[in-house]
Amino acid sequence: MQVDIDMGTTSTGDVAKLDIEELLATRLLVQGNSGSGKSHLLRRLLEQSAKWVQQVVIDPEGDFVTLSDAFGHIVVDAERSEGELIGIANRIRQHRVSCVLTLEGLELEDQMRAAATFLNALFDADRDYWYPVLTVVDEAQMFAPTAGGDVIEEVRRQSLGAMTNLMCRGRKRGLAGVIATQRLAKLAKNVAAEASNFLMGRTFLDIDMARAADLLGMDRRQAEQFRDLKRGNFVALGPAMSRRPQKVTIGPVETSARSSSPKLMPLPDKPEDVEDLIFTPDPEDLARQATAPRRVTPRPRPTVEIIDQLSKSSETSEVHEPRGPRVAVMSDEEKADWIAMTLSEITGNPDSAFRSDSELYQDFLMRGRMKRISGAPLSMSAFRRRLAIARSGADAAMVESEAWQMALTLLDHVTDDLQGVFLMLVKAALAGEPCPSDPMIARAYGTHSTRRARRFLDWFEEQGLVVLHTEPGGKRIVAFPDLDRQTEGGDPDAPVETVERRDAAE
Q1: How much of the chain is in helix, strand and coil states, percent to nearest 5?
Q2: Using CA atoms, how far apart are residues 400 and 280, in angstroms rounded to an integer?
Q3: pLDDT tens for residues 271-291?
Q4: pLDDT tens digits, residue range 412-455?
Q5: CB neighbour burial string for 238-275, b if at least 16 within 10 angstroms, e if fewer
Q6: Residue 164 predicted with pLDDT over 80
Q7: How far apart are CA 299 and CA 302, in angstroms?
Q8: Can you say whether residue 265 is alpha, beta or left, with left for phi > 0 and alpha for psi between -120 and 50 degrees?
Q9: What is the 8-class DSSP label of residue 67?
Q10: Residue 324's pLDDT band (cuts 50, 70, 90)
Q11: Distance from CA of residue 199 to its chain's centroid?
């Protein structure tokens, strides 16, 4: 069923129609500097489509809670436990209720955690509840940043992963991402690139205009028009609105935000006794207790820095007070051997699959300090890559092969959390082994859910990294077009213990 909603008027005076059914399949990106009218555009979209499709709004400033009075949206305060947010998100999908998740009042890291938890719960809903949901995320650069900024890496990865799921893998689960951002340059490229519809508003910075022009297929000279757009005017492009770039003026809205842009108003007449009025203390001033100055909690120092400082202090004291024999400094070759051995020990522990990468990294650093290795033997990103390789089970000869090196280049298109799963499949293909079963894939990711394992394979196929096909007997094969290799047929339901016994027997 085709449903066209009225977004306003085009430059030719026609009605600017937006096909909701097409939008659900192709997603939308809205970009514009502060004051360009992004929130007004989102409100128009939500109001016009409220009676046609379920809506979920991730609202950092609490601007969209006013939708509840006019359109019946449930307002969910994000200041709850993780379990409560997951339960609410599940019931939201089950009962098909539109809602606004308000993050107002939370610190940035808490906002990112709450949004990620809520979006992941929507994404992980049971297949029976995969109804269409228009999922709107305002200020998307906060939740899918290109760099870590002032937040810890674990929070950034969690939030970015949730946004990536929404925009890259949410379509089959009924989640249609609509993201709005002030700065395209600050929004992760893999999130922005998944949108097929664009509404570009007023933009002044060259880097943002260049990104916008690139997404819309314009040259640099055409991109200059973004600077001249008035408030509430956007350039639209995409299958849901227009096959060619056209200017759109967004129409009026029924509701309004609780806060609005300040308006100029004349100052009152200055009283004659203004100094007495300002400096004469009020009785409440004298009765009011002085509040303590706000204490700023310092950010925790990285563990690597603390360990290095302790090491240097220990080494300095040992110059004056020898406490025992010193350990010889490792050569580069010895350090490389130690890293390989340590990673093998860590991945050899069955519980390591269910521990976070940051937790395993701290374990790795502590083992290094026990060997008196100064500093971090590997950065966090390098550790993740080496950990993924170690978990894949590839031997030294395979790792040095040309096909394996080609596979490593494909990791640029795989999120950090799925690199271990991807390399495990590559290893099976290069070794001519049966395709890993769903329980094996789930364990490699660190989950017990075989349903999520099947989703990972679907996502790899959506990205064009693999091709899945099933043999007549029901065995699954994963083929890699870029490597010209494929796995043998494997039982997708085989338990891990059965596979391990088979490998041991061989």
Answers
A1: 50, 15, 35
A2: 80
A3: 767 777 777 776 666 565 554
A4: 888 777 888 888 899 999 988 999 898 888 877 777 778 877 88
A5: bebbbeebbbbbbbebeeebeeeeeeeeeeeeeeeeee
A6: yes
A7: 9
A8: beta
A9: H
A10: very low
A11: 21
Distance CA(344)–CA(354), nearest Å, equals 16
Tokens of 156: 């950034």
65-81 burial: b if 16+ Cβ within 10 Å, else e: bbbeeeeebbbbbbeee
What tokens appear for 260 in the block?
Answer: 């609005």
| Pairwise CA distance, residues 235 & 213, whole Å | 11
Separation between Cα atoms, residue 468 and residue 470, nearest integer Å = 7
How is residue 506 written in tokens?
């061989």
The HSE-up count of residue 293 (CA atoms within 13 Å, CB side) is 3
Could you write out the DSSP letters of every residue in 90-135?
HHHHHHT--EEEE-TTS-HHHHHHHHHHHHHHHHTS-GGG---EEE
One-letter identity of residue 44: R
Q: Can you give the three-state secondary structure of 199-259, one letter per residue?
A: EECCCCCHHHHHHHHHHHCCCHHHHHHHHHCCCCEEEEEECCCEEEEEEEEECCCCCCCCC
How confident is the model over 191-196, as a mean pLDDT? 84
Cβ 343 vs Cβ 282: under 8 Å: no
What is the rounded distance in angstroms from the CA atom of residue 57 to the CA atom of residue 98? 8
